Amino acid sequence: MEQDRQYGENEMSPFIRVGTTYYKIALQPQPDGGYITKRLKWEVQTIRLDYGKEYLKEIPRYNGFCTVPIHKGYSREVGNFYNLYEPISHTPAIGTWEHIDMLVSHIFGEQYELGLDYLQLLYLQPTQKLPILLLVSEERNTGKTTFLNFLKSIFEDNATFNTNEDFRNRFNSDWTAKLLIMVDEVLLNRREDSERLKNLSTARSYKVEAKGKDRDEIYFFAKFVLCSNNERTPVLIDPGETRYWVRKILPLQNDDTAFLLHLKNEIPAFLGHLCQRQMSTDKQGRMWFAPRQIETQALRRIIRSNRNRLETELAEMLREVMVATDCNEICYCLNDLLRLLTLSNVKAEKAQVRNIVIDNWKLTPASNALTYQCWDIDCTRPSGYSSTNRVGRFYRFSKSMLDNLFL
């Protein structure tokens, strides 16, 4: 049967037996002309009917399934377990990769070498934890989707496209064992979505659940690549968060309809380059890169946009006082801040102000009740403020502190 030989090139037989269950390895046609590997449960009686009783002895037998990600030196059998991680069809070679170089330069910009490090780690160290890569732009024709398709072309069946709802669905067996989980139009602005995404990005293991099957714990090595047209609130990112690498992508200067085809043709040469390239960074933490290396203006913008209204109002009020009084640093107690907010027609409670100053801004009060200069609203003064000496356990607010928080 000619169609029975249409299985993956790394398979020795169109059938396997895992434990006591038989599967048929088949390539399922896709609308784009490609194929994806499927393992279909097959009745032993059907195999015996089609091929004869003696054929069953030729079918490879495995104790169970495993998922061991590897690209160079790939093996389907690992310790008599059947490896569910799929081989990629590309063989590293020597050649040019000018179109890929253009894409990587466009996506990573001034962080070009870090971008190459990221791609090299994906290929050579697939179990290494990496930051959540988030590409944002309100403009069209930026190449974000092209980059996702490029990653899919490299890692093939080990990369998958998810929707926002896939993260909320408890049935996750179709994506939890992948190397790359990509979302083209991400909008995970609920707190539970954000927390789940962050936890998954650093998780060592995860519970897999499929319909009609018991939950199973697996080693989790997936990386997330997200794209969004929303530059301000695509996901909730809290101050001090270090798990996101956010890049703002500019529009492409040209529109080559065959660009993706050029990228695919250059993949062997690009992988050959990654195999011999020297990394530009050393491992700095659990996600390889140090937070300062991948911090961007786009990340700070999302963090600022996710701050609550009262926090923003308080920061703007303090900035206004500094500008009006020509001070780089001012001092207030919590009661002073509450009074200023009330006079500015901003409703607030002392507990809310305390949470912002202590929990969000990480400020500590003076160790003892000391004298400090406090600025109050005074409409009779040209600046709109007048100073008064008070005694209390005050907090210091500086322009540099506010700039770091809200840039």
Question: Can you describe what's shown?
Answer:
This protein has 407 residues and is α/β, with parallel strands linked by helices. The chain has 3 domains: 2-62, no CATH class; 98-305, P-loop containing nucleotide triphosphate hydrolases (Rossmann fold), CATH 3.40.50; 309-406, no CATH class. It contains 13 helices and 18 strands. The protein has helices at residues 44-51, 98-108, 112-124, 144-155, 164-168, 191-202, 259-276, 291-294, 297-305, 309-325, 334-343, 350-360, 399-406, and strands spanning 15-18, 21-29, 35-41, 61-62, 64-66, 77-78, 81-83, 132-136, 159-161, 180-183, 205-208, 216-219, 223-228, 244-248, 329-332, 370-377, 385-392, 395-398. The strands form 6 sheets. The protein has a 5-stranded parallel sheet with strand order 9-10-13-8-14. A 4-stranded mixed sheet has the order 3-2-1-4, with no helix packed on it. The protein starts with 14 loop residues before the first strand and ends with a helix. 29% of the residues are buried.
CATH superfamily annotation of the largest domain: P-loop containing nucleotide triphosphate hydrolases
Poorly predicted ranges:
1-10
What is the residue-mean pLDDT, rounded to a whole number?
88
Report the biggest beta sheet as strand number plus sense, adding barrel if it closes. Answer: 5 strands, parallel
Q: What's the CATH first level of the largest domain?
A: Alpha Beta
Using the 3D structure, state the CATH architecture of the largest domain. Answer: 3-Layer(aba) Sandwich
Care to count the β-strands?
A: 18
The helix content, as a percent range, equals: 25-40%
CATH topological fold name of the largest domain: Rossmann fold
- Provide the domain count: 3
Distance between the termini: 65 Å
The coarse silhouette is elongated
